[in-house]
Write a structure and sequence with these properties.
Elements lengths: L3 E5 L2 H15 L10 H8 L4 E7 L2 E12 L12 E10 L8 H16 L3 E6 L4 H10 L3 E6 L18 E7 L3 H8 L7 H6 L3 E2 L3 E3 L5 E3 L10 E6 L3 H7 L1 H20 L3 E8 L6 E7 L7
Parallel strand pairs: 4-5, 8-11
Antiparallel strand pairs: 1-2, 2-3, 3-4, 5-7, 6-7, 9-10, 11-13, 12-13
Helix pairs in contact: 1-2, 7-8
Length: 292
């Protein structure tokens, strides 16, 4: 097996490789590519551009830059400094090996060396793989649902649906993140949460085409722990039925916005892959510390 090295990218040629990798990961829209000259500027100005290389071939990368936290805007910028993690991408031929997790772990270590405590980024809340990585494995939390963050997106992965996003907070020096990244905290599954009194706010049903469809009933949250179900493979839903994908976007937008407004925080994600038909659930918590 080829050894994979994760390190900072440097120089125009390596940034050009990162530019080319984006075209493979997010195909179909040249205008959405972050160009090599901007990657160079980010890397040389306090940001991070890290690459995963196998035999000097770039197979994954993560990129972000310095910014300021939106809370307490009256405070000076130095007191609100954070890292804006903008992209993490893995070549399709190298997926399924945990490479995105390794890239984010390397990013965390670099941020700690810089003295930065907080990193934020956005992702589509209907993507189970991303949710599992961000909340379950990395220990990020989310309390913010943002509508149409990027307007009409043109790349092949996002075209045709509102670009709604979760914005997650990743407190890289917290005990919570330390435990998740190191795997020292035993993972909780659906049975654990149900036994603790978690309330299912919605449920999915299957039609003849085996695609998950939103249920007719959505409950108002009344427990300290609530579960929100999403499709286990939203890309497949989009590919086969864009109208159904739009239904899921509309339904979950309403559920998440209401829950966050009521003070809930997305703190974990459960993916039941052992069943004939996989199921995916967000875990939202209320009335507890989410940063420890």
């Amino acid at each position: 097996m080829t050894d994979i090295i994760i390190r900072p990218l440097a120089g125009a040629e390596e940034m050009k490789q990162a530019e080319d990798l984006q075209r493979v990961v997010w195909p179909g829209s040249e205008t959405d590519i972050v160009p090599a000259h901007l990657l160079l500027t980010i890397a040389s100005s306090g940001g991070l551009v890290l690459g995963a290389l196998a035999d000097d071939r770039l197979i994954g990368y993560v990129m972000g830059f310095l910014g300021t936290d939106e809370e307490s805007p009256d405070r000076v910028a130095m007191a609100r400094l954070k890292h804006c993690s903008h992209q993490v991408g893995v070549h399709p031929e190298s997926r399924g090996q945990g490479l995105a997790f390794q890239l984010k772990r390397a990013q965390r270590e670099a941020l700690i060396r810089q003295g930065i405590r907080l990193a934020t980024w956005t992702y589509d809340p209907l993507l189970s793989v991303n949710a599992y990585l961000n909340l379950h494995r990395l220990g990020a939390v989310c309390r913010s649902y943002k509508r149409e963050v990027y307007g009409d997106m043109r790349d092949g992965l996002n075209r045709g649906l509102p670009s709604d996003r979760f914005q997650v907070d990743w407190w890289v020096t917290s005990n919570r993140v330390e435990a998740r990244v190191k795997g020292s905290r035993p993972p909780l599954d659906l049975a654990h949460y149900l036994s603790a009194g978690a309330q299912k706010l919605n449920s999915a049903g299957l039609a003849d085409d085996d695609l998950p469809r939103p249920g007719d009933k959505v409950e108002e949250p009344s427990s300290k722990l609530v579960l929100v179900e999403i499709p286990p493979d939203f890309f497949e839903v989009r590919r086969l039925d864009m109208g159904l994908a739009s239904e899921w976007r509309t339904l979950t937008r309403s559920i998440f916005e209401g829950a966050f407004e009521a003070g809930y925080v997305a703190t974990d994600f459960v993916y039941l892959k052992g069943e004939k038909y996989p199921r995916s659930y967000y875990v939202l918590s209320s009335g507890e510390s989410t940063l420890g």
